[in-house]
Design a protein that fits this description.
Layout lengths: L5 E4 L8 E7 L2 E6 L12 H4 L15 E2 L2 E2 L2 H19 L4 E5 L5 H15 L4 E3 L6 H11 L9 H5 L2 E5 L3 H4 L1 H13 L4 E5 L12 E3 L6 H14 L5 H7 E2 L1 H11 L3 H8 L3 H13 L3 E5 L1 H4 L4 H15 L8 E4 L6 H6 L16 H11 L12 H9 L5 E5 L3 H4 L3 H10 L2 E6 L12 E4 L8 E4 L4 E5 L12 H11 L11 H13 L18 H5 L4 E2 L10 H4 L18 E2 L18 E6 L25 E4 L1 H6 L7 E6 L3 E8 L7 E5 L32 E7 L1
Parallel strand pairs: 6-7, 6-14, 8-9, 8-12, 9-10, 11-20, 12-13, 14-15, 15-16, 21-25, 22-24
Antiparallel strand pairs: 1-2, 2-3, 4-5, 4-16, 17-18, 18-19, 21-26, 22-25, 23-24, 23-26
This protein binds iron/sulfur cluster (SF4).
Iron/sulfur cluster binds next to α1 and α7.
Keywords: 4Fe-4S, Iron, Iron-sulfur, Metal-binding, Molybdenum, Nitrate assimilation, Oxidoreductase
Organism: Zooshikella harenae
Family: Belongs to the prokaryotic molybdopterin-containing oxidoreductase family. NasA/NapA/NarB subfamily.
């Protein structure tokens, strides 16, 4: 491996940047991959520092049972036997898996196959529930499938880019760089930012709508109403390719009759609101990028559909430079969606509510045990652990004790759970202190497989070095447990290529291309072709021959006006504005908003290993508006206490007009291990979107006081 650059992908966000890496003098060096269509050589600060995080410090190097080092065989046999005993006594639904968008697609596929297909429990969910499950639900309602219509090159073809619910500059930095570059080349390109905060992303915005948190549905319903008023609806598209328009317009119109009043509720000036609406109405090529500010809400699915409604009403979808575009947070949240890593989905975009799909998957996996009903979504799943309904949980590549809302309940649940297995690269995380069995997982740079980014592009992640200690790839760990449970034949995979091929075959199995996710061209992939696979967007069908040119070509869904609903027409959803589940009151008068910072990732288990990433922002902080700080007698850079109905956190006060009066902001990253008082999950309650199950992490009533 020494002295050779190996093409792989970044371990962090859903942009999915291509990286070239090599090992030199036992160190990993990285640079941007100029050929990768996601980033064309660009990397952000986190990607640049990735090599520095490939170190042995802090790694979990051997399997452990109750804190004592053991052999792999003993650990795996104990897991298989304990699962079987629990199944015998309480039934399969007493077992749960909690996965992660950090896993590779092959890992995700075998975990889902084992749980839903062979253990026979639907209780497998993932931290992607916290990330994009509202987008999944919104896509399915509108398109009949979880299909992201667009691709990154639309950013260079758009004339108006709307960024809503995203601090793109810090959370998807390379896409921010692409838009900045596009603006320099095209001075007519306009950017509208919709975000309650004045973030770094405002630097590329021609217009900033700092709307009141939670009012997104009203904003986009107002847009739909405006489009009708100014006669900018595309009736040809509406009549030929959609259903439900009249009801959606009726709700939107009823809610937003008075423009001035609407602007007041949204907290923006009527002039700014009109400008945004005018640009959407008059500019042909419009992309709406949206992320967690939309998804992490008790009405996240409605927010997604309110955006899609406006694109359908104007036919701004399925064309170059057009479309609603959800940005996934994690490197492989999309891969997880594809192979059914969520409690309410089956593999390869097959659906629970379709008996034909159930039969097809049972046949393909040759199993009688395939579950018939969706399982518990993340919040419900940890509730069920707390109440004792679930007796065993296997957590892989994620740190729910920090990342889930109401972390006190998560801790209590894991403490009370009779059997907790954790697979992780790191020895000390907030979660694995509750593990009966700890399994050392191979890390980025040590494992091999595929990931799918926000634009549906499948890229290879390649190993650069042997795993540290006795660490093993997640797919290997899962299949070994499966074999020890007696499912040898179904899990007899020699390597990740065989898993990927089986997944590709499933996408085309008796399917005749009737669904969106089709990888039929990969059915007979050889090991060499897999190893050398260049980044490619799905679908990858037989007609899409694997020539070098076509490997990087972009597929735009819905360019024929056909969708995946029974009628082949897209569905307008009549979405009514609902306020956030919690309300501010005299005890908790401020709204807490949460998000990422530029140089950290998730719960910092990896990014904290690169010292330079901690120089940007070294500790947890609370952004407070100067007026609120004065009223609460809080002094800049001193410690402040922030309290919700769930708990209290202490962090450094950063007084700033980036937040509006009445609103505060805190980053999500700090854990108990890293900062005993800055763990934000202690504050967030467990309100979820009723359709998607995604928690409302962007709206928590809190109060402030000096420490
Ligand atoms: Fe990695 Fe995302 Fe940065 Fe690209 S933008 S280098 S994928 S963290």
């Amino acid at each position: 491996v020494d002295n050779h650059w190996i093409k792989t992908t970044c371990a962090f966000c859903g942009v999915g940047c291509g990286i070239e890496a090599r090992v030199k003098n036992n160190k990993v060096i990285v640079r941007g991959d100029k050929q990768h269509p996601a980033n064309f050589g660009r990397l952000c600060s986190k990607g640049m520092a990735l090599g520095e995080t490939v170190i042995e410090q802090g790694r979990l190097l051997q399997p452990q049972i109750e804190g004592q080092t053991t052999h792999w065989d003993t650990a795996l046999t104990t897991i298989a036997d304990t699962f079987q005993n629990i199944i015998d006594e309480y039934g399969p639904e007493a077992i749960a898996f909690y996965l992660s968008g950090q896993l590779l697609t092959e890992d995700y596929y075998v975990a889902n196959k084992l749980m839903k297909g062979f253990i026979g429990s639907p209780n497998i969910d993932t931290n992607s529930r916290l990330c994009m499950s509202s987008s999944v639900a919104g896509h399915k309602r509108a398109f009949g499938s979880d299909t992201v219509p667009g691709c990154y090159e639309d950013l260079e073809k758009a004339e108006l880019i709307i960024i809503t619910g995203s601090n793109l500059a810090w959370c998807h930095p390379v896409l921010y760089q692409r838009i900045s570059a596009a603006k320099q080349l095209n001075n007519t390109l306009k950017v509208v930012l919709i975000d309650p905060r004045r973030t770094f992303t405002t630097q590329i915005a021609d217009l900033h709508l700092a709307i009141q948190p939670g009012t997104d549905v009203l904003l986009f319903n107002g847009l739909l109403h405006y489009l009708e008023k100014v006669n900018k609806l595309n009736y040809e598209f509406i009549n030929n390719h959609t259903e439900g328009f009249t009801a959606a317009l009726h709700v939107a119109t009823t809610e937003t009759i008075d423009h001035e009043q609407l602007a007041t509720i949204l907290g923006v000036s009527p002039h700014v609101l009109t400008q945004f609406y005018q640009w959407f109405a008059e500019i042909d090529n419009v992309v709406t990028l949206y992320s967690q500010g939309i998804n992490q809400s008790s009405c996240g699915t409605d927010k997604v559909n309110s955006i899609i409604n406006c694109h359908l009403a104007t036919g701004k979808i399925g064309k170059p430079g057009c479309g609603p575009f959800s940005l996934t947070g994690q490197p492989n949240a999309m891969g997880g969606r594809e192979v059914g890593g969520m409690a309410n989905t089956l593999a390869a975009h097959l659906e629970f509510n379709n008996p034909h799909h159930h039969e097809l998957l049972s046949q393909f996996w040759q199993t009688q045990r395939l579950v018939k009903q969706p399982g518990l979504k993340a919040i419900e799943l940890f509730d069920a652990i707390a109440t004792g309904k679930i007796k065993a949980v296997w957590i892989m590549a994620t740190n729910p004790v920090v990342s889930l809302p109401n972390t006190k309940l998560v801790e209590t649940a894991l403490q009370a759970c009779p059997f907790v297995v954790v697979s992780d690269c790191m020895m000390e995380t907030d979660t694995n202190q509750y593990a009966n069995i700890r399994l050392p997982a191979a890390s980025w740079g040590e494992k091999s497989g595929t990931v799918t980014n926000s634009e549906r592009r499948i890229s290879r992640q390649r190993s650069l070095k042997k795993p540290s200690g006795e660490a093993k790839p997640d797919w290997w760990i899962i299949t070994e447990v499966a074999k020890k449970m007696g499912f040898n034949q179904a899990f007899n995979f020699k390597n990740e290529v065989e898993i990927f091929k089986e997944y590709a075959q499933l996408t085309a199995y008796k399917n005749n291309g009737s669904r969106d996710l089709d990888l039929s061209a990969f059915k007979h992939l050889t090991d060499d072709e897999y190893n050398n696979l260049a980044p490619i967007q799905w679908p990858v069908t037989f007609s899409n021959q694997l020539t070098p040119n076509q490997l990087t070509k972009n597929k735009r869904f819905f360019d024929d006006g056909q969708f995946y609903t029974p009628s082949k027409k897209a569905q307008f959803i009549a979405v009514q504005f609902k306020p956030p589940a919690s309300k501010v009151n005299t005890n908790f008068p401020f709204i807490l908003n949460t998000g990422r910072i530029r140089d950290q990732w998730h719960t910092m288990t990896r990014t904290s290993l690169a010292p330079r990433l901690s120089t940007h922002i070294p500790e947890p902080f609370i952004n407070i508006h100067p007026v609120d700080a004065y009223k609460q007698q809080i002094i800049n850079f001193e410690l402040a206490r922030i309290t919700s109905s769930q708990g209290t956190v202490i962090a450094r006060a950063c007084i700033s007009e980036e937040v509006k009066p009445g609103q505060v902001f805190m980053p999500i990253h700090w854990t108990h291990v890293l900062s005993s008082n800055g763990q934000i999950g202690k504050l967030i309650n467990s309100h979820v979107d009723p359709l998607s199950g995604q928690p409302e992490s962007k709206f928590t009533p809190v109060t402030l006081s000096p420490w």
